[in-house]
Amino acid sequence: MDLNLDHNPFLTMIGLTLCRWQPDLAEFELLIEPRHLNRQGSLQGGVMATMLDAACGYSGLFSAEPGEERHAATLSLSINYVARVAQGRIRAVGRVTGGGRSVYFAESRIIDEDGAVIATAQGSFKRRATAAVQPAALSGTPDGFGA
Fold first, then answer.
1. Is 44 in contact with 88 (CB distance < 8 Å)?
2. At 103, is the secondary structure helix, strand, or coil?
3. Segment 139-143 long-range contacts (CB within 8 Å, at least 24 positions apart)
4. Quick check: helix, strand or coil at residue 83?
5. CA 140 to chain centroid
6. Is the torsion defined by CA of 107, 110, 116, 119 positive or negative?
7. Which pLDDT does position 2 carry in this prediction?
8. Contact in structure between 50 and 112 (CB atoms under 8 Å)
């Protein structure tokens, strides 16, 4: 089990810690800092969306094989923001709820230190080959949308 997030620089940059990872389950933790807050002084929705997506996605990617790294793409993610939070340590717990070899379904929830639910999500994810992903070249117009 590799809990090192160096292979996902965005999650590292925002301060997420993968604290538990096992078959069909992933748990991330975040210590809320001022940089995570919106103009109203509460946790920014995009940070929560990232946590929920990561917890759902990683829940279907665990491998007990040393050095094996699995990948997936988010097909859909539906989020419900239930409560506000502005400080402390929060956790996003994701669980696989079904699916097959290539597509799986997962749910996640963010809870605060007292166990109160802050947000929930449900999504579908497609497992991908483990080959390195190359950045796509923009084609057409400078905005990347083509002609």
1. no
2. strand
3. none
4. coil
5. 32
6. negative
7. 46
8. no
Given this model, what pLDDT does residue 8 score? Answer: 85
Tens of each residue's pLDDT in the chain, 147 residues: 445 555 789 999 999 999 999 999 999 999 999 999 999 999 999 999 999 999 999 999 998 888 788 999 999 999 999 999 999 999 999 999 999 999 999 999 999 999 999 999 999 999 997 654 444 444 444 555 554
pLDDT, residue 7, reads 72
The position carrying tokens 């409560």 is: 83
DSSP string, 40-71: TSSB-HHHHHHHHHHHHHHHT----STT---E
Coil/strand/helix, residue 13:
helix
Structure tokens at 135: 């950045």
CB-CB contact of 120 with 82 (8 Å): yes
pLDDT for the residue numbered 1: 42
Among residues 84, 69, 77, which one has the least CA distance to residue 51? 77
Distance CA 83, CA 120 (A): 10
Write phi, then psi, for 46 (nearest 5 degrees).
-65, -35
- Which residue's structure tokens are 């923001």? 81
- Location of structure tokens 């990872």: 21
